[in-house]
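Changelog-adjacent note: as of this version, every example in the card shows the full chain rather than a window. The one below runs 483 residues end to end.
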Amino acid sequence: MIVIQLNKKDFEYDVHSLTRAFYPQETVSVIWEEPQEEIAGLHIKINYEIHEIALVLSEKKRVVIQDSVEIDFYQNRKETKNYLKRLLYMALSEYSKTVLSWGTLTGIRPMKIAVGLIESKMSNVEIAKHLRETYLLSDEKVSLSVAIANQEVHILKDMNYQEGYSIYIGIPFCPSICLYCSFSAWPLQVWEKKVDLYLDALFKEITFIADKMKEKKISTIYIGGGTPTTLSEEQMDRLLMKIAKCFDLNYLREYTVEAGRPDSVTKEKLQVLRKHKVSRISINPQTMNQKTLAIIGRHHTVRQVKEAFYMAREQGFDNINMDIIVGLPGEEEEDVRFTMEELLELAPDSITVHSLAVKRAARLNIFKDEYKEMTFTNSQKIMDMVAEYTRKMGMHPYYLYRQKNMTGNFENVGYAKAGKAGIYNILIMEEKQTIIAMGAGAATKLVKNKEIERIENVKDVSNYIERIDEMILRKRNAIDRKQ
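Full-length structure tokens:
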């Protein structure tokens, strides 16, 4: 157990997150008073004085590291936080003999920092120096950050943030629920009779948003889930017809539908997507190792992945993404290499590489005792190997985000061929444009003058259907406040 003792209720989230990055398996608690009993594990004391931050690491009352930094406290809050995190990082790194490639950064959007530096007219050399000195990033992560930030700025250079907005529509049904999943997803066989009722409620929300936002231009549409292609051919046609009827799609730069589970993809559904001018789809194997698919609860076969991919190509889709996950239970470097060899043969237009992150609501965490014998392997060597395969396919990294509890403390990276980058993916990470999200569990982000207001829909499908008028009222009130 690790206890962090602060003399002020400030920056507690930052110091807790950074400590967890070094010790992901440990229980880390934050207190503000002297403990009544001796702390058996590591005790981190941080004291803020007027011109100093002092830090003491002790173990069973024995001081192991003591350090401090002079600073005009709170003269600049952001600078104070960065000083504190560097001080804590260096102490924990020395104590644990561990180096974190992302340095002091623990948030999920590190690219916002790099993009902001580009927009402030810093050169790439200056940005690299700032990332190393301020956040202690490794050379590999500095290079990756600078490259992706420049890609993002280039891709979004003509984006109208003020007059435009994007749309997310959630279809929260899946053929089965994956072992690691914590999204708003529900097994189709249980909810099949309520899908049309769900669409009826969703259409009410779509109708409202179309009217409320009629003066704005839509930049991108992303239909995700769950698995949108669990909808029948008729239901998918009904949904896309509703979108086309309600919204002006003349300014649309990207129209994505996740066809993530190959066992939910049919020729007829792909034809419906083509008819409605969907420009980008995602067919997601996660792994091309059959034994792993069985472990994680994906009931499709590797053969079905290939069949769905080639079927989409035959229907004319020229922008197909494929997701993989590194760090899946039981997979080692050669298993990941096999997956990449298979994708090399398929030659998709983009690949999103996820590092496994186990959330609290995932079955893998809830029933973790059942899986304690399994290994979860990730390394910089594996991530470099994956990146090398994407280069062989003519792809470049274009967006990146991180999550809590990621295997190996790594990142998720999107790689794409020229002109095939997922624009919505960048927008959701950069948080510069309003994204209106509809459906169960969908989270809207209203952006105005760099301020973000978040409005969440209820996750439960039955609650969403029953409370759709309440969901609409929430959005109406929030949009009115932002106008």
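Structural remarks: The longest strand covers residues 62-70.
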